[in-house]
Amino acid sequence: xxxxxxxxxxxxxxxxxxxxxxxxxxxxxxxxxxxxxxxxxxxxxxxxxxxxxxxxxxxxxxxxxxxxxxxxxxxxxxxxxxxxxxxxxxxxxxxxxxxxxxxxxxxxxxxxxxxxxxxxxxxxxxxxxxxxxxxxxxxxxxxxxxxxxxxxxxxxxxxxxxxxxxxxxxxxxxxxxxxxxxxxxxxxxxxxxxxxxxxxxxxxxxxxxxxxxxxxxxxxxxxxxxxxxxxxxxxxxxxxxxxxxxxxxxxxxxxxxxxxxxxxxxxxxxxxxxxxxx
Length: 278
Ligand code: C2E
Ligand code: CA
Ligand code: CA
Ligand code: CA
What we know:
By secondary structure, this protein is of the alpha/beta class. 50% of the residues lie in helices and 20% in strands. The protein has an 8-stranded mixed beta barrel with strand order 1-2-4-5-6-7-8-9, surrounded by 4 helices. A hairpin with a 5-residue loop joins strand 1 and strand 2. It is globular and about 50 Å long. Residues 1-7 have low confidence and may be disordered. Ligand C2E binds next to strand 2, helix 3, strand 4 and strand 6. It comes from Hydrocarboniclastica marina. This is cyclic-guanylate-specific phosphodiesterase. Residues 23-277 form the EAL domain.
């Protein structure tokens, strides 16, 4: 504490300057990313754990900027949230995901589900529910085929509005899942009062399930709790067959991860689907 004189945090260090310049630059690039067509959705298959039957995919955004290369969402989604750009970006994601889902139906003859990530600010935007409704109807997608993934973080600051929006989405028939389940330090009470359908066990628990007793116990407990509340469970971040075997033994419903496929551009995803079904 002694070393932290006033000057040490007030001074604008070269690192901070660089950081904020970088941020400003990224922000201005992000503002133009949609109109310049730099955003793309990747898709990662979600399968039934028991028999590896394909049920759908999660859409994961990628930003392809000429100057920065392929930027991962962990780098720009927080910035998009802070600046409000997540509203147009989120709208683009939902529309692009629904359009893709329609194309898959034509390409594969199957009705796969599509999971879309929703960030807190986007969720609270007054036009959100109507926007979802519109994306579905414009693309002729039944509501039950869309799964919205909402982070536990959002549910944590639970407000009347959160409850109402969830209720409206549920009544529409959209499926709702809790993303990053187990990482939010939230009370579990919300699970019984909110209309969720699915818990997504965070990949940080799945990662060490074969080596860490505690992680194995947590995963087991989450699956059992979810099932006794009539919720389904998706394990994300499944990277090898031992993890999958463990999840099967615990009765986990769905699995997603590099073991099956990395998130991939649409064309590659469809190739994977064709190969998987042979
Ligand atoms: P998430 O929703 O928890 O997505 C899962 C992340 O785990 C993805 O990272 C995915 O590529 C990665 N992953 C999948 N399988 C494995 C595996 O077997 N092992 C490991 N180590 N990782 C795996 P990604 O695509 O970089 O996305 C990061 C986060 O960015 C997402 O975490 C999500 O919170 C956010 N995000 C992505 N797309 C969107 C979007 O369209 N809208 C919003 N609001 N957020 C998004
Ligand atoms: Ca997700
Ligand atoms: Ca529901
Ligand atoms: Ca996660």
